Records
---
Amino acid sequence: MLEEKIKNEYRRWAECASGDSDVIAELMTMAGDEAKIEDAFYRDLAFGTGGLRGVIGAGTNRMNIYTVAKASQGLADYVNRQNEADGEDSMRRIPSMAVSYDSRIKSDAFAMIASAVFAANGIKVYIYPQLMPTPCLSFAVRYLGCAAGIMITASHNPSKYNGYKVYGPDGCQITTEAAGEILSEIEKLDIFDDVNICDFNEAVNEEAIEYIDDDVYTAFVERVKQESVLGKPGDEAYAEVDKNVAIVYSPLNGTGLKPVLRTLKESGYTNITVVKEQEEPDGHFPTCPYPNPEIKEAMTLGMEYAARYDADLLLATDPDCDRVGIAVKDDKGVRGPAGEYALLSGNETGMLLLDYICSRRQALGTMPEDPVMVKTIVTMDMGERIAAHYGVRTVNVLTGFKFIGEQIGLLEAKGHEDSYIFGFEESYGYLSGGYVRDKDAVDGAFLICEMFSYYKTLGISLIDKLEELYATYGYCLNTLHSYEFEGSAGFAKMQGIMKEFRGNISEFGGMKIEKVLDYSEGLDGLPKSDVLKFLLEDNCSVVVRPSGTEPKLKTYISISAPTRADAEAAEQKVCEELAEYFK
C-alpha cells in the first residue's frame, strides 16, 4: 500500500503540474500503478555538492521543470542572502549568475526555466546563446565575476538522465557547506506556491537576462592554448613537432565539437576527421546509449573510423565535454594484435600527461618553486611516484573534481596558484591550469594531441612511453566495477551493503587487509564521505563507495605486480570475491 503522503503528493501534482505536456502525460499513465507512483514521489530528488541528477520525468524524485525551478529558487534565495551578508557595498551591486547547458533532452528548457527564476529574484543572468561545455561555464563564472553558476547536464549518464550542477564564485562546484545551506533554502519552499518566475523572453528584452558575448568563449579558447608546454620559438628547449597527425574525433553527440575543433585547428592540428554519426548534438545518443568515453562501447564507432582512415589517434569527449578518452594504434602488438587500436584508461592517460608536463616544464625551466599535483584517492597511486621523481608534491583528495578545484583555490588564496601544474582523476578528467576549476576535456584533448605529436616526432608511441613508465615505476593495474541498484529498494540495499563492508573482513582475493580507511568520519583533513579504502598487502588496494550521481555502488581495484598477466590474474580473484557482496 502507498503511504498517504505519497498519494496526496501525486494528486497535487496531477492538479497543479500543468506547464509541461510531457509531465501531464506521464502523471496520467501512472494512475493506478502504485510502484511507479512510489518511485516518482517517495523522496525529493537529492541535492548535494553535485547539485541535482536524476531521471527526466514527472514527480519529486525526477528532473522536470518544477524540480529545476524549486532548486533555482533555493539557489536564488541563497545568493541574495549571501549578497546581503556581504554588507552595504554589495547591496548596491546586483548579484549575477552564469548559465550553460548541454545537448541532453530538455537541457535548453531547464536552462531557460532556471534563468527565468533567477531573473524574477533580481539576479542578473548571463546565459550562453548555444550549448557549451561545463568548463566554459566555470570559465564564465570567473571571467564575468558571477556570484554563482549552473550547468544543466548529467555528464556521461544515459539519455534518460539530466542534472543541474551548481558552481560558486570561484568557478568550482559548490562545497559541502554551501550545498547544505542551499538545500536548507530549497527545503523551505513549496514546489508550486513559493517559486518566483518571469517570462524568459521578456527578461531578455529588459536585459535582466543577457546572452554571453562571444568574446568570453574566445578568451576561454585562448586560455586553453596557453597551456602548451612546447615552449616558444627562440626558447632553448623549444620543441618543434609534426602536427600533421591523423586524428579522429567524436563529441559523442555533445557539446565538444566547436570548442575542441577550434582549439586544435587554431593550434595547427588540422588533419581531423569527425565521427559523422556522433557529430551533431543529440540528447538521445543514438549510437552510444551510454555516452561515456570510459566505456568501450561508446568508443567503438570512433575506433571503426580510426581504422577506416588509418588514424594515429582517436579522441572522444563526453556530452558536457569535461572528460576525454583516447585510443592509439598498437603497432607493436603490446596490448593485442599488432596494428589494432588500443584504448588507454583514464589513469594511463593521466600518468602520461603528468610525466609529459613535468618533463617539458623541467626542460623549459618553467617548473614552479613548489609544484603541486592533485589527484583523487581512487586514482592510481603510481601518479605519486611519477610526481616525486620530478620533485612535485602530491595532494590526495576525495572523489570528485570539485575537490581538485578546491585545492587550486587554496593555493590561490596563499598567492601560489602557479604552483598547481596538473590534476587528474581515474574517470578521464584532467586539468593543467587554474583558469577553470573543473575538469576540462578541451584542455585535455589539446594537451593529448600535443603530447602525441611531441613523442611521434621523436619516434615514440604513447604505448612505448607507457611501457617505459611501467618499467621505471612498476606495473600497476587499476579497474573500476559498478553495480546498479534502482529505486527505493535499491537505495536501501546499497546502504546495507556498505554496512556489511564495514564488518569484520580480513582479506580480498587471498590478499590480507593491512589497514582500513573509513572516510565517513573524515580523514586527513578531508570532508566526511561514505568511502572505504582497504589497503592490502603488496601495495594493492580496494575502494568501495556509492556513486554521488547515480544509483550505483562502485569498486576500484588497484593491483601492483611484476607483470600485466600477474596483475590481471590477481585482479580477477579480488573482483570475483567482491561481486559476492553485491548479489
Note: The chain has a mean pLDDT of 94.
---
Amino acid sequence: MLCPPVFVEGKVRSIRCALSCAGGIQPPEAAPYLPFFLFFPLFPSLFAHRRFSPPPGRPQYFTKLSIAPITILFYLTRSPHFMPTRILGLSAFYHDSAAALVVDGTIVAAAQEERFTRIKHDHNFPTKAVNYCLREAGIGPEEIDYVVFYDKPLQKFDRLLETYLAYAPAGLRSFMMAMPLWLKTKLHLPREIRKALGGKYRRRIAFTRHHESHAASAFYPSPFEEAAILTMDGVGEWDTASIGLGRGHKIELLKTLEFPHSLGLLYSAFTYFCGFKVNSGEYKLMGLAPYGEPRYEKVIRERLMDLKDDGSFRLDMRYFNYAQGLTMTNAEFARLFDGPPRDPESSITQREMDLAASIQKVTEDIVLRMARYAKELTGARHLCLAGGVALNCVANGVLLKAGIFDDIWIPSAAGDAGGALGAALFCQHQLLGRERTPQPGDTLGGALLGPRFSNAEIRAFLEAKGIRHHYCAEEAELLRLTAQAIAEEKVIGWFQDRMEFGPRALGARSIIGDARSAQMQSQMNLRIKYRESFRPFAPSALEEDSPVIFDLEQPSPYMLLVAPVREDLRCALTDEEQTAMRDPDLRKRVNVKRSSVPAITHVDFSARIQTVNEARNGRYYRLIREFKRQTGSGVIINTSFNIRGEPIVCTPQDAYRCFMGCDMDVLVLENFILYKTEQPQLSREEKDTYVASFHLD
C-alpha cells in the first residue's frame, strides 16, 4: 500500500515567537514610547539641575519649555524608525560557518569563516567573519541591536536524542562522538555568542528555524514582490524541505518534509558511496553525471524510496546509515548497487558514472515535482530557491527550462553559509516588521560582500616582501595587458574588489583563462587546481552575448544555472572522437573538442554559466569586453582562485601564495600585474608542501 504524501502543514509563527534565553524580540510598536509622548512636559523637571537654571529675571517655566523639544527628540530617536537597526546573522557548528551584517535592511557585509582561517568548510564559531563585518560597518559589538542564529539548537538536539533512542543501541558510537560538542558548546549558544563578542553584547539573541533562514536568504534579496519559496537541504531541526510564500516583507512556510526523508541526504549518500566527501563533493557527483547513463534510476525509485506526485517521499531506511551511524550507507545499499563504496582517490569506474547519472536524474524529477506543487499551493509567478540542493545548478537549469514559473532566483550563498544572511534578514523584515522594497536584479550587490584591499595596501605588501611587480596607473592598460595574456593562453589569477559571498568565484577572486583553448580544461585541472581531470570549468560571458553562446535567455549572475551551448557552436565528432567519448579513461573524453569554446563545454554540451554586466561586475565586465575587442569572443573561463582543498583566497597574501604554489602564469592584484617568469621559482618540494597544507575535499 502506498503511503500518503508526507509534506506536513507548516507552522505559522507569530512576531513574538523568536525566543532566546533572554526573551523574545519585540515588534515595532509605538506602545513602549507612549508614556514619553504623554508625559514629556514633566521630564525636564526630573532632570533639571544647576546648569539649566534660567538667567536672572527669566521665568522658570521658560527653561522647562525650551528643554521639552530636546526631550521629545531624545525619545523619538530611540525609536527603531529613527535609529539605525544593526542585525548580525550567524551560522555555525555544522559546516560553512558565516556571519552577515544587515543595517536598516541593507546588506553591509557577509563572509564565510573559512576564508579567514584557511580551513575549508570551517564549522567553528565565525569569530573572524564577525570581526570583519563589524569593521566594515565601523561599529563594535556593543552597537549591535540584534544577534540572530540561523537555526534552533534545542530543537535539533531533540531530533538527535529521539533518533538515537529509536536506533539504540546501534548508534552508540555516533552518540558518544556527538555529545561532547553539544554539551560543551551547542547547548549554550547564548553564552558562546556573548563570549565570542568579547562580553560587550548584552541584548537579546534570537533563533530562527533553519528553513526560515534559507527561505529568507532566497526571498528578501530577490527582485520579486511575491514569490513561491522552495528550500531543500540535508536537515535543519527536523525539516529537510519546505514550500512557502513570500509577499512584501512577510514569509509563510506552508508545507515541510521531515527527517529522515531528505533529498539532500539522499544525494549525499550517493556522494559518499562514489568516494567523494559529504558536504563538499556533491558538486563533483553532479559534474560526473554526464559521463554516465542512468541505469540505476529504476532501482532508486523502486527500492530506496516511495515518491509522491507532490515531490514528497519516504526513504527505506534499511539501506541507509546516516540516521544513527558514522557512514551514509550500509551493506544493504552496497548489495543493491553492485559492490562496496569506491575508495576515495581511487580510479573512477563506469559504475560511479552511472550512479551519478541516476541520482542526478531522480533529483531533477523530485525538484520538478516539488516546484509544481509549490506553484499549485501558492499560485505565484516566480520562485525563489535555497538550501544546499539549490546549488545543484543542473537541476536548476532543468527547472527553469520546464517553464513552471516565469522566473526563478537563487542567492549566491544558497547553502548553510547563506543562513547567516537569511537569519539577519528574517529578523529585519519578519520579526521587526520592517518594509522591503524589491530592486531590479536583486539587493545582493553581485554577492561582493567580503573584504577589499586598496592599491596602497597591496603596494605595501609587495614592497615589504620584495616582490617584483608592475603598476598600471590606467585601467585601460591593465585590461589590455590582461586580455592579451588570456588570448596567449596564459592562466591568470584575478584579484579585484570585494570578495564574493558564497561558494562560487564571480570575478573578484577568480582564476581565468581562454575558453577557446582545447587544452585549457585539462591543463588547469592538473597543473593549477590539482584536481580530478573530469571536472568542467564554468564560463563568464558578457550578459549581452550570452544568448548567442548558450540556450539561456535570462541572466545567471551567480553561476547557478546550467544550459546547453548553442548547436551552431558545437563540433561534429569524428568516429575516433566518438570512440574516445566512450573510453573508460575520463581524460580522453575531456580532451575531445566539442565546441568552439571547448574549455567550458561539458561532455553533454552543457555549461554552468555566469552572465556578467557592468553594473554588477564593474572591472571584470570591462576585462571580458576588452578580451572580446581583441579576439571577438565575449566568454572566458572562470574558476575559483584556490587549489584543491583550499578555501578561495581572501587577501593579497593568500593570492600570492596560491600563485606561487601552482603553475599560474600571471597574477593581477587590483592595478598590479605580477609575471611568474619574474618571480623566484619554487622547487617541486616547496609546491608539494603548499598543496599538502590543505586537506583534500
Note: The first helix runs from residue 34 to 39.
---
Amino acid sequence: MTAPQTGRDTERKLQELSFLHEITQLASSTRDWDEMLRLIIDRTTDAMRAEVSSLYLLERREAILRLAATNGLDRRSIGRATLRVGEGIVGWVANARVPLAVRDVRNEPRFKWVSSVDQSRFTSMLSVPLVTRDEVVGVMNVQTVEARDFDRGEIGFLQTIANQVAGIIEMSRLHRDAERKLREVSALFEVSNVLTSTLELDEVLALVVDRLVRVYPGSSGAVLLRGENGNPVLRARSGDLPRAVLAAARRAIDEARPVVGPDHLALPLLAGERLLGAVVLNVPGENTFADPEVAFVGALANQAALAIDKAALFALERRTAENLRELERARSELVAVVTHDLRTPLSVIRGYLDLIGERDRAHPAPRAGVRLPLREASAQVAHLDQLVDRILESVKTEGFERPLRRVRFDLRAELIARLRELAPMARQHRLVLPRAGRPIIVRADRRRTVEVIAALVHNATKYAPASTPIVVSIVSEPGRAVVRVRDGGPGIPLADRARIFDPFVRGVAEDVPGSGIGLYASRRAVEAQGGELWYEDAPDASGSVFAVSVPR
C-alpha cells in the first residue's frame, strides 16, 4: 500500500470517527425524535457523498418496514410508505441482515418501485441493516443520481453508521417508552384521585380525555356515551377528530369490541356486561399501537366506565332520596288530615261529658258514694286534644321532628302524676309507682320525657301477663336521673337486643298489636335531649327492664 493511499485511508477513518462522534452528540442533545432522525439522515448524506438518504424502521408485530425519515424522497410519505420484510431491496436487507449495494436499481430484480416515494432520477443504492442486541430494528439507505460502485470501505462505513444509529434508536425508544409509562402512570393516578373526590361525571370524563392526549403529544381524543335512544353522544373531547375516528368510536359501541386503525384506537366502555359508550384516541403519524399502549387506553376506559357507573349510582340515590322526601310529604299530609279529622269526635265526646256532668250536678245520684269519673275522663280528652295539636305541629317540620322545650322540673313528681292517670290503662296489671321522696330536678322537655316513660309502661302492658307487676322506679345519679320500667313478661332474646331500637322491629309476640316504631321513636326523643335509652336484664332473669337517663 502506497503512502498516499495510507494517508487517504487514515484521513477517511478520522472523518468517520468525527462523524460518529457528531451523531452521538446529536443523539444526546436533541430531545425531539423526528428532528434527531432528520439530522442523522442529513449528516449521513453528506458523509457518504450521496444525493439522498432514507431510514426505514421495523414494526415487529406487523412485520413491516415503515419510512421514518428521508431528505430527498417525498417527505409526505414519511409514516405512510411501507414495505413488508423480504419485499424490495429494503425488505431483503432486513430479512437477510446483510448489506446490499446495487449499481443500477433498474436492473435489480429485488428492487421494488414505490410510486409515492421513489424517484426515477436515482440510479445507485446502498442498503444496510440496523441491528442492535442481535435484532434488526430497521434499514438505512443512500442513493445517488450517477451510477456508482460502492467500495468495501464505504459499505463498512455506512454499516458502522447504521450500527450507531441502531443503538441510538433503541436507547431513544427505551427513553420514550419510559417517559410514556411515566405519563401513563401519572394519568391513571390523577384520574383515580378525581374519582374519589368528585361525583361530577363531566369533570371526570374531561380529565380522562385530557390525560389521555397528554400521553401522546399532538393527539386528540374523546368519550362518547350511549344516549337514551341508544345513539352515541359526545360527552368529552380534546382536539379535532376526523370523521373516520368518530366512526370508529361508534363501531366500538355498536360491536362492543376494540377498533384499531392506522392512527386511531377506539375501545368500548363496559361496566360489567353493560355497554356505556366508547373512548377514542387519534394519534396522527402513529402507525400501530403496541399492546402496552392498548392496555393503557383500556385502563383509562375502565376508569371512565367506573366514573359513569358511580355517577349513575349517585343519580339513582339522589332520585331515591327525592322520592323518599316526596313520600314523607305525602305521609305528613295524611297524618295532618287524619289528626285534623280527630278534632270533631273529640269535641263531641267532650260535649257529652260536659252534658253528663251538668246533669249529674243538677240531679245527684240517689245512692250515696256513687260518682261518675267525669273529671278524669274530661282530662283524658283534653290530653288527646293536645296530642292532636302536637301531631299537627310536628308534620309541619322536616323529618317529623318536634322542637324541644327544655325546662327544669321535678321528674319524680311528674312521673307519679302521669302514671296515676295511666292506672286505668294498666288495670289488668299491678302498676307500682315510684316512691315519694325528695325532688329529682332535671333539665329536659317535660312533656316528651314523661311521654317516653308512659310509652314504656304501655309497652309493658302489652307483653307482660295479666296480674303481674309493672314497676317504675327512679334514682338520682351524678349528672343525671335514671328511670327504670320493669315488667314480668318473657323478656327480649339475646339475638334481638341489638335491633329492638330499630324502626319497625316487633317483639317475639307477633299477635300483640303495634307498628314496631315505639322504641325507635322513644330513643330518638331521649337522645335528642342528651339522654339515653337502653335495655337491661332483670335481676332475677325474668321480664324486661328498660332504663331512661335524663340530664340534670
Note: The chain has three domains: 13-177, 198-316, 404-551.
